[in-house]
Design brief:
Chain A is an alpha+beta fold and about 160 residues long. In chain A, about 35% of the residues lie in helices and about 15% in strands.
Chain lengths: ~160, ~160
């Protein structure tokens, strides 16, 4: 059964959903962002069925987030490397990381956020300083954290002819 | 066919994928973040099959992102309101918005990002100033944009006993 497609929707969230709604795809991208390049390494780290992995990698190549490069001649072998489009998806994964860390590792089961995130077995760290990285989504212009109560959607005005 | 579940995975990205991999779910949340509360309004705005919408709303209630509240007695009617957990998911949608705007509205078809985003028919604006909001994922501590080349994963050290 093919699901409803959102890839031509007018909303960027809908189009992005079309991609990451392919279930394993965010995890394939997570591994690519961790430096994984080879089919067998993706397969072993994710314990994903080979046919599912092939389908996800093919789509990510078709959509321009990964590029397939030959690294060996005899026999021919390829690896998958992040493009700039793929690398720039990492902040979306980072935002998912933050929300998931805050809300989906509820040690005391009371449904509230755990500010210590003590139940999360991993952390993101800066490769230079070793300090923990805590992703936060802000408005690029003002630096203010994005708050659902302060944002609304507006139809973009057509540009005047030059 | 039930898909592989990631909701008890050790990685926050995997757990979040389990939720948003339910395909329509990011769009149901998008509408909830735009103030939609009633079943028929979700249904009409998304043009989603009623059974699919029921399943998504039930899961979002079970997972604590929405709460069901009775707003009418005769006949009994409920609406769905964002909890704090649900409202805090909005930055993830905002990060998806940004990446989708930058990369999935490629007017000239050359696969590069379009800095003008002229092809995106909507924009996010601040309710107070009316200025365009451009979501950006940064490190909360340093304010630096999240860059895949500067972040790695580390197992969290166990805390010393107090």
């Amino acid at each position: 059964m093919r699901r409803t497609r959102f890839d031509t929707a007018p909303c960027p969230i809908a189009r992005t959903t079309d991609l990451i709604g392919d279930w394993w795809t965010p995890l394939v991208l997570r591994e690519a962002c961790s430096g994984v390049r080879r089919f067998d390494d993706f397969q072993q780290r994710l314990d994903i069925p080979r046919a599912s992995l092939t389908a996800r990698l093919d789509r990510l190549v078709d959509d321009g987030l990964l590029r397939r490069e030959q690294y060996q001649d005899h026999p021919v072998r390829h690896e998958y490397r992040l493009t700039r489009k793929g690398a720039e998806f990492y902040p979306v994964l980072a935002a998912m990381w933050r929300w998931g860390s805050d809300w989906l590792f509820d040690a005391d089961g009371d449904g509230s956020a755990d500010p210590t995130r003590a139940g999360v077995p991993f952390q993101l760290v800066d490769v230079g300083s070793g300090a923990e990285v805590r992703p936060l989504v802000v408005d690029e212009t003002t630096g203010d954290p994005i708050d659902v109560r302060r944002v609304r959607l507006r139809r973009r005005s057509p540009r005047p002819a030059p």
